[in-house]
Design goal:
The chain is of the alpha+beta class. The protein has two domains: 46 residues; 76 residues, RRM (RNA recognition motif) domain (Alpha-Beta Plaits), CATH 3.30.70.330. Helices cover 36% and strands 21% of the residues.
């Protein structure tokens, strides 16, 4: 991508272009030379917005706007060990807004355990669960249901 030049560099370029045409700042140009200078200035004026435009963002790289509505968490079991968060997110996004994907890993080895949790917009979660439960994903039959609340440790303060 083109880096936006400083204002000083643009001014110097205009002065250099004027000097190349043999035009001083005191002597007015006439005829064909005036047309050439006008065309050069028009070109530079048209080029300035392009040079100073904000860089474009890759649509995939943009951060999502956080979801603020009610959510439901789905348990997803029998996941292939090679499945990652991106693949699971894409699968569930077909059925609605995915807020978060957490795939469980073994603490000692760091390898995936074959299950995880997908947090979705409340209105989309039931449809996703019914559509994806007992469906095949990367040659495994998924088990999808609403997650149970995490049990509190007994005797913990």
């Amino acid at each position: 991508m083109i880096q936006a030049p400083s204002v000083r560099a643009v001014i110097l370029a205009v002065i250099a272009a004027s000097a190349a045409f043999g035009v001083g700042f005191v002597v007015p140009a006439e005829g064909a030379l005036a047309g050439a200078i006008t065309a050069a200035c028009a070109f530079i004026a048209a080029l300035l917005p392009v040079l100073f435009a904000a860089p474009t963002r890759n649509a995939e790289a943009e951060e999502e706007i956080p979801y603020v509505g009610e959510t439901r968490t789905l348990y997803v079991g029998n996941l292939p060990y090679r499945a990652n968060e991106v693949a699971v997110r894409k699968l569930f996004q077909q059925y609605g807004r995915v807020v978060n994907v957490r795939l469980m890993k073994d603490r000692d080895t760091g390898k995936r355990k074959g299950y995880g949790f997908v947090e979705m917009a409340a209105g989309d979660a039931e449809g996703a669960a019914s559509a994806l439960n007992d469906s095949e994903f990367q040659q495994r039959t998924l088990k999808v249901r609403e997650a149970k609340e995490r049990r509190e440790l007994e005797g913990a303060d």
